[in-house]
Amino acid sequence: MDAIILGAGIAGLTASYHLKRKGFSFLLLEKTLRCGGCLHTVTTNGTLLEKGPNSFLSSHDTLMAHAKELGLTGEMIQARESSKNRFVLRRGKLISFPTSPAQFLKTPLLTPLGKLRLILEPLIAARSLNGEESIAQFVTRRLGKQALNLVKPMIHGIYAGDCEHLSIQAVAPKITEWEREYGSLFKALKKTRLLSQGQTLYSFKGGMQTLTDALYQTIQKHCQLECQDIAITKLKEGWKVQWKHQGGLREEEARVLILGLPAFEAARLLEDSNPGLALQLNTVPYAPLAVIHLVVERSFINHPLNGFGFLSGAGGKNFLLGCLWSSSIFENRCPDSLALLTCFVGGAKNPTILQEGEDQIISKVLNELRQIFGSSFRIEEASLTRHTKALPQYTLGHPKKLEKIRAHLQKSPGLYLTGNYWEGISVNDTMKNAVHVASLI
Ligand SMILES: Cc1cc2nc3c(=O)[nH]c(=O)nc-3n(C[C@H](O)[C@H](O)[C@H](O)COP(=O)(O)OP(=O)(O)OC[C@H]3O[C@@H](n4cnc5c(N)ncnc54)[C@H](O)[C@@H]3O)c2cc1C
User: Fold this and answer.
1) Cα dist. 287→31, 39, 173, 318, 362 in Å?
2) Cβ–Cβ contacts within 10 Å for residue 121, how many?
3) Distance, CA 300 to ligand 1 centroid (Å)?
4) 276 three-class SS
5) 79 ligand 1 Cβ < 6 A
6) pLDDT the model gives residue 251
7) What is the pLDDT of residue 50?
8) Order of strands, edge to edge, in the sheet holding 415-417?
9) Distance 8 CA to ligand 1 centre (A)
């Protein structure tokens, strides 16, 4: 056999899809009952719940290209125009998040001095030193301290991370390139026409899992779900994989082994055959996240929900990281008389929240939402999904960690790693990494 791939998340499925196109013989092994990993859509009583990713952008080229190839263009749905409105929760109030230069000038989220400092960005000299900076250091240096209050909620919301610890070079290499190339972020935005082009937000009619289901369809014959106690052994040439399936012990050998697993899980499997590599993989930290879905009688919400949702403001003592107004973003997410809210708690700054009981977490979320949406706010249904190790954190030193991991891989012919800890955590970036890995084989 040419290859064995472990993990049927978007990374493992994408790599498998490309190996099939290249005509390789391969086997994809997944430990759970389902494929898709983080992409997990559940439909109950006419309500569509996303336990993982909710959407992707029109600029997500790899995802868009695969959707087209898989015949999913007709399944794609565009977010409603109103979802361009975004809010920040500050002192119990929702404040519009500025998205255009004019809105930045008007926003109460910055003082006049903060706005002036922001406008002066093109005059700030580009950094001459090499080396890493945290997101907080970078934003403060280029845009001023107050601008950090705008960036922090986004970083909490997207990466479940902490601006003080995440590396700007690892999280947003493009932005540091812009500084080097154009000397200013504003000049770069103008030159690259990013602001004027705008971005469209998409999902699929049947939810994000439509994508992984379609990939799975193409390689189903090569995939085995519910594989337990997977163990790997390095052979003189190639790899041996052993696992249990439906009570029986299975074994296969292949020239190539691709691990489409979270870094800590790849580390666990490689502990015996490649302890040095396992050690490096284990240094990638992960942040926990709980996703709480609330189905609410629409008339009980004292707000038009005319937007994407809100992120919790910097410095606040909010329990929630953010809340997506899922039924406002995409149509047909729940019956018209109801609203579907998707709330997030936890993250790198509040990891212990996930240790609390389900009722306790949901009741804290409701208390916070009542302060925003009024005391009549009552729920029809609530459900909680825990991701104990949800997202890899690209902390300071991440690029060096990846260099060391690459160096180990060079000494391990036939071993390849793919997943969301390499080149970006989005579905698109994870797919891009998997396409690249498949191209190396
Ligand atoms: C709550 C949440 C919301 C998100 N929202 C968005 C969003 O809106 N947009 C966006 O672009 N991205 C979003 N992301 C990020 C994105 O979904 C993930 O980064 C990406 O899907 C990760 O894919 P992966 O294949 O690397 O890992 P995973 O999806 O974790 O897949 C790994 C697979 O390996 C399996 N596995 C684990 N151990 C073993 C083993 N020993 N043997 C075999 N199989 C094993 C797992 O069961 C799983 O199926 C979100 C992530 C989360 C958690």
Assistant:
1) 22, 17, 21, 18, 20
2) 16
3) 34
4) helix
5) no
6) 97
7) 98
8) 223-224, 26-29, 3-6, 256-259, 415-417
9) 9
- Measured CA to CA, the distance from residue 36 to residue 21 in angstroms comes to 20
**Cα of 215 from ligand 1 centre, angstroms:** 15
The answer to whether residue 315 scores a pLDDT higher than 80 is: no
User: CA 343, CA 304: separation in Å to the nearest integer?
Assistant: 17
Token output for 441: 């084989």
Q: What pLDDT does 323 receive?
A: 97
Which atom in ligand 1 lies closest to the alpha carbon of residue 268?
41
Beta strands in 134-278 (DSSP E): 201-204, 223-224, 228-234, 239-245, 248-254, 256-259
Q: What is the pLDDT of residue 286?
A: 97
- For ligand 1, atom 13, which residue shows the shortest CA distance? 53
Q: Are 297 and 337 in contact (CB under 8 A)?
A: yes
265 Cβ closer than 6 Å to some ligand 1 atom: yes
Say how far apart CA 65 and CA 211 lie, in whole Å.
12
Name 324's bridge partners. Answer: 309, 342
| Residue to mutate (ligand 1; options 30, 38, 51; most atoms within 8 A of CB) | 38
Model pLDDT for residues 86-98, shown as the tens digit of each residue = 999 988 889 999 8
Tell me if 335 sits within 8 A of 378, measured CB to CB.
no
Q: How far is the CA of 428 from the centre of ligand 1 (A)?
A: 12
Q: Does residue 427's CB lie within 6 angstroms of at least one atom of ligand 1?
A: yes
Beta carbon of 230 within 6 Å of any ligand 1 atom: yes
Residue with the smallest CA separation from ligand 1 atom 9 is 53
Q: Which atom of ligand 1 is nearest to the CA of 13?
A: 25
Instruction: Tell me which amino acid residue 20 is.
Output: K
Rounded-to-integer distance, Cα 195 and Cα 192, Å: 8
- The ipTM estimated for the assembled molecules is 0.99
Fold of 3-40+59-66+208-284+394-439: FAD/NAD(P)-binding domain (3.50.50)
- The protein residue with its alpha carbon nearest to ligand 1, atom 50, reads 53
Phi, psi (5° rounding) for residue 134?
-75, 165
- Which band of pLDDT confidence, cut at 50, 70 and 90, is reported for residue 316? low
C-alpha atoms less than 13 angstroms from C-alpha of 325 in its C-beta half-sphere: 25
